[in-house]
Amino acid sequence: MLAATSAETPASSPGVSTLTPTTTGDAFSRAPALQLRWAASQPAWSCRATHPHPVRWTLGAAAHFSTSSSPASPASSSSSSSSTPAPPSAPAGGPAASPPPHPLSDAEVEAAIEAAAPTSGGTNLLMAALPPRAVPYAQLMRLDKPIGTWLLALPCMWSIGLATPAGELPSLYLMALFGAGAVLLRGAGCTINDLWDRRLDAAVERTRSRPLAAGMLQPRDAVALLAVQLSLGLVILLQLNDYSKLLGAGSLLLVGAYPAMKRVTFWPQAFLGLTMNWGALLGYSAVAGQLDWAVCLPLYGAGVAWTLVYDTIYAHQDKKDDARVGVKSTALLFGAASKTYFAAFTAATAAGLVAAGLAAGAGPSYYAGAAGMVSHMAWQIKSVDLENGPDCAAKFASNKWAGGLLAAGILADKVAQSGWHEWYEAM
Q1: What is the distance between the alpha carbons of residues 275 and 420, in angstroms, rounded to a whole number?
Q2: Kind and range of the H or E element at 180?
Q3: Cα dihedral 296, 298, 299, 301 in deg (nearest 10)
Q4: Residue 226 domain-assigned?
Q5: Which UniProt keywords apply (predicted)?
Q6: Residues 221, 73 share a domain
């Protein structure tokens, strides 16, 4: 939410007010309220209005009043006075008067949404091609930040590869299905998370520009998007065998419950690990029709430990705001000892990957990929500056390469087992 505050003008230009937009945690905590204060030579007045479209109302109000931040000359003061009506004084003892709204055209609203769109986290060709009206929905799905989709899809690819019988190659069809499912499920998870957290997000610097927290979308818009995402996800789930349909449906309980975890436990990252790595189970069952627990359980555990590392690094970005608003995280729990915990979780990841490889009868390429992943995690632990938010974000995003190294090792192992000739024909 945007709060606009007025600075008192010099005596040489009475009646002219300067509005300067600011953002404050107090204002965001009452989103989507809009505060305006007028301070000039006449009696002060203030108003607070709730509006279903804060972006439209905010810019409309800003257009209604002078927005000059520099002292006005007498000539400009005269011009401003003639073009901008003076705000009415509040009756003694009565409620403050409200400024007349100044609705924007649809084109202006689209421009406002486009201008308000957060740019951090990177952009891609898809986001650049979208019309302005679609941008907030894409941001709600985090299509502008695909790292989460990678982190959800990679455990699926691991298990699809390990479940593929020796001498065969992983199914490109299944990998494509799981890739599309990762986009939809990750988007649905972000939509649910932002519905839960829209007021908390408004009080945290990094998240206050998210579409729901910023008022670019209303909860009903997010619910409609969620219905579309879940419907398309169901279409994908129905392509799998019966065992996998039931297993996949179970993941929705984790997705829906995750946003509540940060309110009740300091271990929400562990719960996120259970959610993000569900594909380590589902991918295997999609190929084999059942789970081989000797393979799947250590693989799943390795993924959970991996998530505890990368998402705790991610949470260090927000630890000050989280402590202020009462959000719990392993970043707050571990504190200065975080890197010691990271080392333990990295060792658990390595142990799980070795156990899964032995149970699956994997070859040397698999272990090379596993070693590459663990080495990447060790590099993150050594090099990350947990007091530097941008560095934490960069290390978090680099985990697509950590998980990708293991996926590449599994694929290379299957290619070696099946022979290059068969791989060439499959391509």
Answers
A1: 36
A2: helix 172-202
A3: 120
A4: yes
A5: Isoprene biosynthesis, Membrane, Mitochondrion, Mitochondrion inner membrane, Transferase, Transmembrane, Transmembrane helix, Ubiquinone biosynthesis
A6: no
3-state secondary structure 18-86: EEEEECCHHHHHCCCEEEEEECCCCCCEEEEEECCCHHHHHHHHHHHCCCCCCCCCHHHHHHHHHHCCC
Q: Name which of 74, 110, 89, 104 is nearest 40 in CA terms.
A: 89
Domain that holds residue 222: 138-426
Residue 321 and residue 206 in contact, taking contact as beta carbons nearer than 8 Å:
yes
Task: Residue 418: give its domain's CATH number.
Answer: 1.10.357.140
Do 173 and 242 belong to one domain? yes
State pTM to two decimals.
Answer: 0.71
Alpha-carbon distance of 23 to 21, in angstroms, equals 7
Beta-strand relationship, 3-7 and 33-38: parallel
Please give the Cα distance from 401 to 150 (Å, whole number): 9
Task: Tell me what pLDDT residue 100 has.
Answer: 39
- Burial (CB count within 10 angstroms: exposed 0-12, middle 13-18, buried 19+), residue 206: middle
Q: Which of 89, 104, 119 is the last residue of a domain?
A: 104
Whether 46 and 164 map to the same domain: the answer is no
115 falls within a domain: no
| Distance between first and last Cα of the chain | 52
Last residue of a domain, one of 58, 85, 104: 104
353 pLDDT higher than 70: yes
In this predicted model, what pLDDT tens digit does every residue of 145-198 receive, in sequence order? 999 999 999 999 999 999 999 889 999 999 999 999 999 999 999 999 999 889
What is the number of other CB atoms lying within 10 angstroms of the CB of residue 16?
24
Q: Is residue 236 domain-shared with residue 291, that is, in the same domain? A: yes
Q: Identify whether residues 56 and 155 lie together within a single domain.
A: no
Q: What is the pLDDT of residue 46?
A: 32
- Same structural domain, 74 and 152: no
Cα Rg of the chain, angstroms: 27
Q: Is residue 89 part of a domain?
A: yes
Quick one: 99 and 150 in the same domain?
A: no
Q: What is the pLDDT of residue 107?
A: 56
Q: Which two tokens stand for residue 134?
A: 């679609």
Give the separation between CA 331 and CA 386, rounded to whole angstroms. 9
DSSP sequence for 233-275: HHHHHTTS-HHHHHHHHHHHHHHHHHHHHHHH-S-HHHHHHHH
The C-alpha atoms of residue 310 and residue 1 are separated, in whole angstroms, by: 30
Pairing assessment for the beta strands 45-50 and 18-22 based on DSSP bridges: unpaired
In a domain, 126, yes or no: no
Task: Identify the sign of the CA torsion 143, 148, 154, 155.
Answer: negative
